[in-house]
Amino acid sequence: GAVVSQHPSWVICKSGTSVKIECRSLDFQATTMFWYRQFPKQSLMLMATSNEGSKATYEQGVEKDKFLINHASLTLSTLTVTSAHPEDSSFYICSASSGETDTQYFGPGTRLTVL
Amino acid sequence: RKEVEQDPGPFNVPEGATVAFNCTYSNSASQSFFWYRQDCRKEPKLLMSVYSSGNEDGRFTAQLNRASQYISLLIRDSKLSDSATYLCVVSRRNAGNMLTFGGGTRLMVKP
Fold it and tell me: pLDDT by residue (tens digit) across A32-79?
């Protein structure tokens, strides 16, 4: 099956710093990538949808200036959490779709802890 | 009201038991339906798609009732390795392949 990687798998940072998370589709071209956030004991919540070469579409309540998304190529999307605060601590998961089917392939997730 | 609702459980069952999970969705424009499995601190993984005619994959059977907006997952002969959270997921027509996740149902299979 299709493989999606994320880097880093976990990160601990101080409050106020920015953190960049990479999402890569390794063996297919991802026309669309999705970024989710999951807090403990809650389900995945979609943050934004990005299509290669265009601006991301953010879900209601997600600050686009805080969560910067770049989808510069068909195999790479990045999420930058700017000026991270402890309440941003969460499990961030990306997924990628080739657009040929409904299937989304999920990355292994990045666990962010902001001290 | 959440768009996709599930009983959070946990369902505690002995090995070998049959267990069923239910899910309801509120948006009648929902087009595709899935069950995902998520292990603790891991990403969700596709278990199976759900079709109107129902579908079976080994010990797993999924059913969809569009009229009632209801989806089910049946697991037969439960194994210890089935312990996980099962996520009901729908995607909407004309929503750019966007998935909406239910809150998940936690299953614990015990010896």
Answer: 999 999 998 888 999 999 988 888 999 999 999 999 999 889 999 999
Alpha-carbon gap, residue B79 to A113, rounded angstroms: 34
Comparing CA positions, the residue from A93, A79, A97 lying closest to residue A28 is A97
DSSP string covering B9-52, please? Answer: --EEEETT--EEEEEEE--TTEEEEEEEEE-TTS-EEEEEEE-T
CB neighbours of residue B52 within 10 Å:
10
In angstroms, the CA B39 to CA A69 distance is: 27
Mutate to test the interface with B, among A44, A45, A49, A112 (most CBs of B within 10 A): A44
pLDDT in tens, B5-19: 999 999 999 999 999
